[in-house]
Amino acid sequence: MSGQSEFTMALLDPGRPTPAIVTDGQGGAAGKRFDVYRNNVIVGLIDALETGFPVVAKLIGAENFRQMARVFARAHPPGSPLMMYYGAEMPEFLANLPQLSHLGYLPDIARLELALRESYHAADADPIDPQGLASVDPDRLCLHLAPSLRIVTSAWPIYDIWRFNSEENAPKPRAEAQDVVILRPEFDPAPHLLPSGAAAALASIGAGAPLGALDPEVDLQTLFALLLGHGAVTGFAEKETT
What we know:
The chain is mostly helical. It has helices at 3-12, 31-52, 54-60, 62-75, 90-95, 106-121, 158-164, 198-206, 220-229, and strands spanning 141-145, 150-152, 180-183, 190-193, 233-238. Helices cover 42% and strands 9% of the residues. It comes from Palleronia caenipelagi.
């Protein structure tokens, strides 16, 4: 094992001894100093996770979350110095925790919170003028969606759960499956509840499908009003006929 790998593993595991490469200014052992540094690193990772998953933390309680986050941090150290992306493995991690198996919706709430963070940091793109769409055959129309758009599907009422734990006076969650689209018209992304079938339609649009290829049962009028009203359409093309 290289000295760097030994150092990284020791940082995240208090059961490991201080690496031999860690010494004080005179070349002596620096175990106590390393222990302080190790604790500060772990606390910093826990704080970052708590900031990134506030609804998950609220649902299981702050103390429980910090204990869980400590385990997560040791199993999943950051792969990048950009901490804004830390925690991508959280949904799968939560899904595999037996202690939280009774909260089946929790991994999807984590996915929603990750998607909000990804949307926030996504590239900017100018929305189109909707009047430009009038001259295009709707069946051949292909829309270009904003880089900040994210889709989260779930068998749980994730939109209602997120709102109930994020907004004052939000209604109690309904017992239904809910799909969400995250839109960022300006600076702050927000989730929006999708009508039935709209998540699949959006995924098809994002893959380049023309509107004429979408499920006719989907309420496209409501979907397009949502997209255009939040600046989520950034371009379009007309699919050539064969």
